[in-house]
Amino acid sequence: MKKISNNVLLGRLTQILNVAILVFFIVSIVFLLKFDKINVVKVSSEPSYLKAKDHLHSVEHPLKQNMAEVDYYAVKLDTLTEHQTKVAGDKKAVKALQEDIDRTKKTLADKMEALAQTEQAIANERDAFEPIETEYNELVAQTENAKSTFNVFMYITMILFIIKIVVWAVWNYRNSKNLRAACSWMEKATAPSWAFWGWIIPVYNLIKPYSFFNELYEETEYALTDKNVMPADNKSDNDFVLGFWWGMNLLSVCLMGYIIMSTFFGDGPAFYKLNHNTVAVVAIIMWAVYILMEIVVVNKYNKLNKLMCDNEKVF
User: What are the extents of the domains in the chain?
Assistant: First the structure.
């Protein structure tokens, strides 16, 4: 007789974690929609804000040149004025210098007028730009606050999901060890350690957790029917159930995660063409179906585990 461990509590813990994951995911989506409501307004107002900002910069652009020209002609006028004492005895030179001073004064007056006009235009433009900038900055602040709240609940969801994966892996590992202890042929089957490695290796983790659990499920059913603990005709057609469960897992976590990021946080076609509320509702439905299917799958295997424990002596 082999020692078979009862892992039902671990299975139930994954179910509890799944319910918590679904609850926090739904709350996350609610806050995501609140963020999106503000973000859509911010994105729609951004072109007018940037246009006003560019226009202000174009108005401010001549300012440095105007100031440099005023400084240049002011210095030139001072230099010419100082030079008058050096040519005091030369009437022709005095006359030419005076004409140059008069031209410089006129040019300086024109440049000062141009500078004043530029400064006035900048002041007017800044007065017009200020409420636009204030409104836009308020939208940015509100968007960041809403995004931060969403991130808190999404991070909690992700942490719970990781904890669930760890518990799921431990549950699978212990169930695999049960089969190895009860069935000699399982020595040639997938090693129990793949219950963990299957989730860790990139790309491979898209299929290995499913194939590991599928093998575990089928071999457990075979062991129970082989020992006449469970009637052969009572074996469930688990291929569809497990395939549907894992397919919903990939669609919900991978595909829907990408769609959510593209729709709510991108600036591509998905943001403008997809209905954001519809995406949120579909995401909740897909996650609910996936979570429900996983709870059903865990419940079905827990029953098999209990049968093995109750009939431990036949193994």
Answer: 8-314
The string of pLDDT tens digits covering residues 214-232 is 999 999 998 899 888 887 7
CB-CB neighbours of 99 under 10 Å: 10
Find out whether 174 and 7 touch, Cβ atoms under 8 Å. Answer: yes
Looking at the predicted structure, is the pLDDT value of residue 38 above 50?
yes
Nearest C-alpha neighbor of 75 from the set 83, 87, 64: 83
DSSP labels, 49-89: HHHHHHHHHHHHTHHHHHHHHHHHHHHHHHHHHHHGGGGTT
Write the DSSP string, 171-184. HHHHHHHHHHHH-G
User: CA-CA distance, 313 to 227, in Å (whole number)?
Assistant: 11
DSSP 8-state class, residue 2:
-
Rounded Cα gap, residues 72 and 184, in angstroms: 98
Instruction: Fill in the amino acid letter for 230.
Output: M
C-alpha 155 chain-centroid distance: 11
* Tokens (6 digits) for 271: 């943001």
- The whole-angstrom separation of Cα 184 and Cα 167 is 26
| 234-277 confidence digits (pLDDT tens) | 656 788 899 999 999 999 999 999 999 999 998 889 999 999 99
- Enter the DSSP assignment of 228: T
Q: Are 22 and 291 in contact (CB under 8 A)?
A: yes
**Residue 11 · residue 305 · CB < 8 Å:** yes
Q: Residue 122 to residues 48, 111, 135, 136, 261: CA-CA distances in angstroms?
A: 18, 16, 20, 20, 40
